[in-house]
Amino acid sequence: MAEQQGERITYVDGTIRVPDHPIIPFIEGDGIGPDIWRATRRVIDAAVAKSYQGRREIVWKEVLAGEKAYAQTGEWLPKETLDALSFYRVGIKGPLTTPVGGGIRSLNVAIRQELDLYACVRPVRYIQGVPSPMREPEKVDMVIFRENTEDVYSGIEWPSGSPEAEKLIRFVNQELGKSIDKTAGIGIKPITPAGSERLIRRAIRYALDHKRRSVTMMHKGNIMKFTEGAFRDWGYQLAAREFPDQVITEEELYRTYHGEVPEGKIVLKDRIADITFQQVLLRPDEFDVIAAPNLNGDYLSDALAAQVGGVGMAPGSNISDTLAVFEATHGTAPKYANLDKVNPSSLILSAIMMLEHLEWVEAAAKVLTALEETIAAKIVTYDLARQMDGATEVKTSEFASAVIERM
Ligand SMILES: NC(=O)C1=CN([C@@H]2O[C@H](COP(=O)(O)OP(=O)(O)OC[C@H]3O[C@@H](n4cnc5c(N)ncnc54)[C@H](OP(=O)(O)O)[C@@H]3O)[C@@H](O)[C@H]2O)C=CC1
Ligand SMILES: O=C(O)CCC(=O)C(=O)O
Ligand SMILES: [Mg+2]
């Protein structure tokens, strides 16, 4: 289909309107990005074709970011890319490289901040047959709602010895009575009521809409009282104000409801971040939707992915009320770039989330069923094959073909 035949996705009165030939921008990504993107695109196109017999088709539009953008335009994140993601409302991306300790700031974070994609939604669900270190991996079914625009993750920091760091240290020491060493590097951790509330509101609404049992706010509020502690407090206040008939506290659950979550209600609770990492392993069925500030959500995403096969099986989306950019949880895994080796399931599962977002549920279900059948047949990429007995190890592209054959 030629690009000009596609149409733009729109919103009318807050409801998404998806034409039969939506134009969807994609960023191929760095490192393993091109391999997993190619595989994902084939799978999605096949599912849409088989589900709608030509009546519907995605009109893909490449937009540039990362190394490819820099090579072609001299810019890492061209304005046209942000404009296209904003104009077309829905996009999908491969991972983009961020150097450690210096160099450019994260382009992934820049996209989230520039488009105000305030919630990073990462479902962690076990697919039968996937190797897992858990005794009962089928109990793992959580959805992380990670705040996506604030926190130390927003990159407000200055290096040790810089005039900015020294100025700030001088101010804090002289004006606020602290004693920071003057050689310190400095990072700032802003967390706002509005940023926390919109994230937690979204998590609560998701839990109610999807008949989940609980939302757990994960924070380190005992130590960072006015950022992460406040995140928790604002969450409870929001629930009391906006969801008084639907949200109960843990105390009410036991005192009033004898441990049984009543129909139509959810429990809002909180856990301190360090113990959360233990409890999600030992008692995964006590966790359902998890709302977290940016950095905690980042750490937790990769940790939980390990329970369901690793980051090769971990999808995600970055969303606002009117925009969505889908991407895997993992990064560019540079040592595997262009080897046609890694698992494309994380991006395929992200694309399933995208199809659900478009309300193309038939195509979404077709991909998921075919992916599950492929894994059940023990046809898997290296990451799962190395943990499975009797697996047939296939390349990224072969895995995509095996999924398509099962549609
Ligand atoms: N949203 C984004 O675009 C993100 C970007 N990044 C960036 O990616 C770069 C590399 O980061 P790094 O910390 O190495 O993390 P990565 O997630 O890129 O890779 C770490 C390890 O995870 C495994 N892995 C990753 N993707 C897959 C896959 N699709 N299939 C199977 N296994 C996979 C590999 O494990 P093994 O070695 O065991 O085979 C790999 O070595 C950095 O520049 C980082 O900033 C990181 C995270 C997110
Ligand atoms: O932007 C990056 O390089 C890292 C991002 C990341 O780890 C994440 O969003 O999970
Ligand atoms: Mg991460």
From TrEMBL:
GO biological process: glyoxylate cycle; tricarboxylic acid cycle
An annotated Gene Ontology molecular function: isocitrate dehydrogenase (NADP+) activity
Residues annotated as binding NADP(+): 97, 330-336, 343, 382, 386
Positions bound to Mg(2+): 298
Domain Isopropylmalate dehydrogenase-like: 23-403
Residues where N6-succinyllysine is found: 93
Keywords, sorted A to Z: Glyoxylate bypass, Magnesium, Manganese, Metal-binding, NADP, Oxidoreductase, Tricarboxylic acid cycle
Comment on bound cofactor: Binds 1 Mg(2+) or Mn(2+) ion per subunit.
Its EC number(s): 1.1.1.42
Cofactor: Mg(2+); Mn(2+)
Catalytic activity field: D-threo-isocitrate + NADP(+) = 2-oxoglutarate + CO2 + NADPH
Marked site (Critical for catalysis) residue numbers: 153, 220
Residues annotated with Phosphoserine modification: 106
Stretches that traverse the bilayer: none
InterPro entries: IsoCit/isopropylmalate_DH_CS, Isocitrate_DH_NADP_dimer_prok, IsoPropMal-DH-like_dom
UniProt superkingdom: Bacteria
Binding residue positions for D-threo-isocitrate: 106, 108, 112, 122, 146
UniProt-listed NCBIfam families: PRK06451.1, PRK07006.1, prok_nadp_idh
Quaternary assembly: Homodimer.
Purpose: Catalyzes the oxidative decarboxylation of isocitrate to 2-oxoglutarate and carbon dioxide with the concomitant reduction of NADP(+).
Family: Belongs to the isocitrate and isopropylmalate dehydrogenases family.
Name under which the protein is recorded: Isocitrate dehydrogenase [NADP]
Organism: Sulfobacillus acidophilus (strain ATCC 700253 / DSM 10332 / NAL)
